[in-house]
Amino acid sequence: MYPDTFDSSADRVDLSEVVGEMESELSCLLGPSIRLATGSLLAGGPAAIRAGHEEIVDLLRHLALDAHDAMPGGGTVTVLIHELIQGRASIDPAAPALKDGPREWSYQELADEVAQVASLLLDAGLERWERVAVYMDKRLETVAALFGAAAAGGVFVPVNPLLKPEQVYHILQDCNVRILVTTPERLVLLAVGLHACRDLRTVVLV
């Protein structure tokens, strides 16, 4: 019924149109125990803005250096991963954090997006230490979702976007995932089997 692979290069449909046309169908497939939510993790909406692996690694490297420089007298300081972004934003808010072609986020913009995601997840009922799976291709929303889950007190579970639905189900079950952040296209691939993920309560569409 559903294709085995997802073509990330395909044109994206508008999120509002997808939800309007498929909400009833997807809700039936998900079952009564899983709530369907929608939310943009980008102020600009659901446009496909991609960040490559190298850009994400470079971002984390800069954040780690900032944390090291902040340690007084060579001592150790406990820093949570999302606090690295906040710390960098307070030092140099206009500095570029992520770049994708002509689009660029400063550290302040990234920090704001992370805070927005954290608020969305808390509104969805996320409690401390609960798992948030992020099943999306490489894009700016993915970065915001991962850091946002940490900022909300949850534990993020990055799911390889190349995995087949059966493999994703296994991860969601094995990690006791409570909230899944994904796209409408990927939810279509997953919907028929998500009812078996006993701990999943909410799906957030980006």
Strand order of the biggest β-sheet: 1-7-6-4-5
Specify the biggest β-sheet: 5 strands, parallel
Question: Oligomeric form of this entry?
Answer: single chain
**Topology pattern, helix = H, strand = E:** HEHHEEHEHEHEHE
The averaged pLDDT comes out at: 77
Low-pLDDT runs: 1-16, 40-51
Report the sheet-strand fraction.
Answer: 15-25%
Number of strands: 7
- Shape, principal axes of CA atoms: elongated
| Total of DSSP H or I helical runs spanning 4+ residues | 7
> End-to-end distance, in Å?
23 Å
Structural class: alpha/beta
Question: How large, in whole angstroms, is the Cα Rg?
Answer: 17 Å
Features:
elongated; disordered N terminus; 7 strands; 5-stranded parallel β-sheet; 206 residues; single chain; alpha/beta; two-stranded antiparallel sheet
